[in-house]
């Protein structure tokens, strides 16, 4: 860990931030969609292609061995990053979405039967809704939804009422991408386990901000994406408890996931390779390690503290704008603020802010059922990362005042 | 005026602004002045898909000319509808179908607004052309 956190130094590590958009310095507040990448990640990517590009696992030549070693080093790093017990429990995927689909199509298909129940929450991303709808429909299982209150907190007593012997899988988001709510996932897991249900945690938004300890949580599955943790796109992690992964059928067939193939019978490879069919995304996986190193070197607690400061500052500043309503006022939040401005469409806000060089996200944020819950079509959302500053938040506030004047 | 004469007029008007702030103000102004669409036309089938805001477009024939009416719940998009209506409404189906809308590029919209498909500019334009095509095949 470094002793002092200086955002000026941090910003130097992110070359993309140093540019103007429509003549104004870029303010990047779309970090919940994807974070920018530090130089070390960009360099790791180019170093891979400049120095040791080769296909992994099968080669005996030097480049193949180096590529394999670096690819597997990311697995070790990812294991530490979420404090998994064993490296075999780390499966590389394309991202959160693929991880959830993998679990639904393997564990879900194997274990769900007609009348069983899967519980999700009212603030899930479409990625943690649709895969469950698909497998539930196929199996005749029932999807149940934990409701949320006006603040954006899960109603835990309603959750307990939903749990029963029929509950086979609980899949909930750790941190909501639309509201910023940090859900009490440890408690959710403990309660589900009392009924013998397995729990998948969607860690897409949590992993860059909170210390993750899958053993302490006792999560059965935990999924996240590299690109939201300062790493490249196209890589993600599925953590699964070993005994579960061992018992699950493979997801896709092909090279790498097999031990022996004959036309009569194929035997599958050991974990984690059983779930990594075909040539994986080697380059991005290798560079993903640089991202995880970057975050751990600075320290999540240091990052979290700074981001919380930004959240508090932004919440106070935005609330001072007349007619602005923050959607999502949960007790525990990460640095995401969704808001609506009375009488002004979020699309107009997005276009006008972009003209001021400010990147926010507008729309339903892939959480349409959640928008329905709040009776809105969408919000505009500012989400902060460690390289953002209070001055940037001031610019957002000024931008919104201007929009209000013009459109209000 | 022909479609191209109207386009040239719009290009002239936009040339008065040296930055997009001004252009947006102008588009917003058009949006605010666009008469609201009668609620009987705000139907599901008049909604244009592919926009982040809701956009309704209605077309009808009046004396061989296609008349367009439209609205959106977002102001900038309403301004864009207003511009497209000003250019295309009141012309024959054939003229509309073969019109080359160069003003979009010339006022700088292609680099600015049109980049994000989400604003639905092209979806609107496509729908207007489809109406015109439908009317021209009907009359032939
Ligand atoms: C909470 C949540 N879950 C899942 C996803 C999907 O992640 P990916 O697109 O990387 O698969 C996202 C991304 O926006 C998210 O915010």
From TrEMBL, chain A:
GO terms for biological process: cysteine metabolic process. Gene3D superfamilies: Aspartate Aminotransferase, domain 1, Type I PLP-dependent aspartate aminotransferase-like (Major domain). Its EC number is 2.8.1.7. Keywords: Pyridoxal phosphate, Transferase. The keyword Transferase applies. Residues 27-396 form the Aminotransferase class V domain. Belongs to the class-V pyridoxal-phosphate-dependent aminotransferase family. Csd subfamily. It holds the Pfam family Aminotran_5. NCBIfam families: sufS. This is Probable cysteine desulfurase. One of its GO terms (molecular function) is cysteine desulfurase activity. InterPro entries: Aminotrans_V_dom, Cys_dSase_SufS, Cysteine_dSase, PyrdxlP-dep_Trfase, PyrdxlP-dep_Trfase_major, PyrdxlP-dep_Trfase_small. It comes from the Bacteria. Catalyzes the removal of elemental sulfur and selenium atoms from L-cysteine, L-cystine, L-selenocysteine, and L-selenocystine to produce L-alanine. It catalyses: (sulfur carrier)-H + L-cysteine = (sulfur carrier)-SH + L-alanine. Its cofactor is pyridoxal 5'-phosphate.
From TrEMBL, chain B:
InterPro entries: Fe-S_metab-assoc_dom. It comes from the Bacteria. Residues 12-129 form the Fe-S metabolism associated domain. Belongs to the SufE family. PANTHER family: SUFE-LIKE PROTEIN 2, CHLOROPLASTIC, SULFUR ACCEPTOR PROTEIN CSDE. This is SufE family protein.
